[in-house]
Amino acid sequence: MGGYATDTFYLLYRIAPHELKEFGYKGVESFLKKYGVIETIQKLDEDGGKSYRYGRGKKRNVIVKKRPGISPEAVGKYLLHRSCFIRLADVIDGLPPYDEIVITFKMDDMQKEFYLNLQDSLAQAMKTHKIRAMSAMLQSLLCYPDSCVVFPEKAVIRVKNKETGEYKVIDVITAPMLPIALLPKEQELIKLCQEEKSQGRKVLVYVTFTGNRDIRLRLKKILEEKGFKVGILQETIEPKKREEWINKHSHEFDVLITNPELVKLGLDLYEYPTIVFFEVGYNIFTLRQAARRSWRIGQKQPVKVYYFCYENTMQEAALVLTAKKVEQALLLEGDLPEGLATEFSDSGSIIEEMAKALVEGRTYSGAETSWAQMRKKEIESSLGLNSDETIFTVSAVAGKQDKAVKLKPEKISKIDNVTISIVTTKGKKKSVSRMTVKYEEIDNLVKKYGLVQFGMF
After folding, report:
1. Which among 26, 292, 325, 420 is least buried, having the fewest CB atoms inside 10 angstroms?
2. Where do the Helicase C-terminal domain residues begin and end (predicted)?
């Protein structure tokens, strides 16, 4: 789930269309209004001093946004009686270890200089053109640190003519292509692939932006120059044939490069136990699905998932905000104890939050820490560790008939004999060490070392 009531609508329509006939197949907006969470923002401004017969006019600007959450009424009416609750803890004995690791990189000096120039220009454009500049801003700032050695950047801001439907260009912001041999991310990717190949492990590399800023061919070239056999899963391969194509050609590749959208659903990629999100977008549904493609029943090797980003950039902001949204999705799905009753205090979409950060000059740093905190909660929920278990014992009520009983609640701990694998960093050079500790010792280790990542073992 992506966290919104609308995510359940079409699934429910396929399961029980007769129960949703009041909405109709195109009634997703009506479903959202009845069972979802909607925020309405209304701004009133003086209408340029215009005078009307009965007083001064006011200009009304109304913005309606959907928010994460679903009504408990919808859960009871549509979901509970057709749900089977199976937790990851029920099958975890059959799964190998799973690790998620966020790595932030310092940019090359030239790369950083031109990125900051581009960021300043786009921030000014956001202030001037508002929402019209949002799409250009997101694509440019997320892509340019990686595509700057392949393409010059060109962010085009357009406005639509309401009468003709045609778009008019109102601003163009550019940044040059840079003569850098290997970017920091690329150097780390080569190193990681070398380490994995020495252990007989194949690597799956996700590249999110494969339109006008497609860097797959560059990654293929620099990896092949280092002796790797590299394949690219293309969009032209039909969805139903993609798993067959991968299985047929896997023996030919050390590294497979693809857009995560192509493999996020239905595919079991056992051959690629190491996954690298070289580019990270802002769709949490895609990210959560794509990250688990090789961590499936039947996988024998430990699974490692890496997220690459440049520090103090929009890439890091996207990862920090994604971690927050994953936590909110876990709340909606009932995997965290707060459940549906939780108030989403920071419930704007990732896109809106990134735009706000740019305009206000806010920086989202600490992607490693944010991701670690989210992973801690996710592991706790998966293993049922997020709270003490409440059990009820039955006892007879004194002086009453034998049939009269009362329920006595009792808290029992869930953390006995649970161990968690963690990765810590120490010192300015971030020397990494791994250890397996008792769950109850984690908070003390956080204070001592500064926690970076969790693994599920």
Report:
1. 26
2. 184-348
